[in-house]
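Please think about what follows:
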Amino acid sequence: MTLPFRPDEETYAVLVVDMQKDGVEPGGAIFAPVPEAVRAQITRLVAAAREHSWPVLHSQHGHRPDGSDFGIAGYFEELSCVEGTPGIEFVAGMEPAPGEVVIRKRRYSAFHDTDLELVLRGLGVTGLLVCGVLTDACVLSTVVDARARDFKVWAVRDALAGTTEQLHEAALSIYAGYFADVVDTDWAVAGITAAG
């Protein structure tokens, strides 16, 4: 699949998924290693978007301290990203810039029971360049939901990390079938820069 990329005619945004301490830093409740190379590509992608005034949005997973909103997730993982704890915070260097939208979510998808779609429609956004974690969980759910809402999605392969490299690659293969174009940061930054 190749989606038409027309930033001169349409508005696109960068969505950074869940770059939080509990998932990204050693010792976090649901730690999955994010290689430094991936962090560098996320930083590069976000910097290009900011430089060219593209919207940058961040999802932030969070749960109540008593776990009352954790639901079925408790069968799969430890309670994490608890409100009022360091684990919910964005990792150093990945914090939203002033004015950037933060979408607080309680389920994997950044669209589930949030105002993400409302915000994107209000900004006139029709497509998303997606980066962050986890390719096989929160990013996967978000990409599938974006497609269901008729947003174009470009999954930025080298600016994403999965639970394991094998699951990362498997998720990218699923994206490429019906849900998104899989691109790299060089392609994304070149497109952002060319659009001016």
